[in-house]
Specification:
It comes from Nestor notabilis (Kea). By secondary structure, the chain is of the alpha/beta class. It has seven helices and ten strands. The radius of gyration is 16 Å and the shape is globular.
Length: 189
Amino acid sequence: VKIFAPNIEQRDVVNHLKGSPTEEKRNVLVESARLARGNIQDLAELKATEFDAVIFPGGFGVAKNLCSWAVDGKNCTVNEHVNATLQAFHSAKKPIGLCCISPVLAAKVFPGCEVTVGQDKDVDGRFPDAETASAIVELGCKHICKNVNESHVDRANKIVTTCAFMCKAPLHEIFDGIGTMVQEVLKLA
């Protein structure tokens, strides 16, 4: 297992204690290195031939830094290295795992694929971003409704997705869903 991140500036830096942006500037690779305890490489160096699968975690950083979904929605652009990585694994018929908001990357890069970001309606306030499912459909993809503890496998494209924090759920349910995604990716590898 190796960890990669793009060597780019973050769109913005958020003080998560206050919930507001700061004037500070940070680099995605440097911040990712902090989380990965330094054991990380520039995404530009990733070679699909050296790995059996790739998994993209989610989070708002995906929507702001790996693509411009947070600002542009379905009209977003995908970072060139993220796009190249997805294309390389897809072309090699190697599995791709995506959780939380990152399934929008597949929806943007692979029209016609099947993904999940949870539900397409805000059920009991648990899916406040349910409109993301509609945007995925507008991109020409199929959104599959799943609960937070489940994942969806698009066997034709070898794409496995789960909604994770797109659902307001207890952490153990989110953990279970991410676990099923990882297990399914490994089965396809």
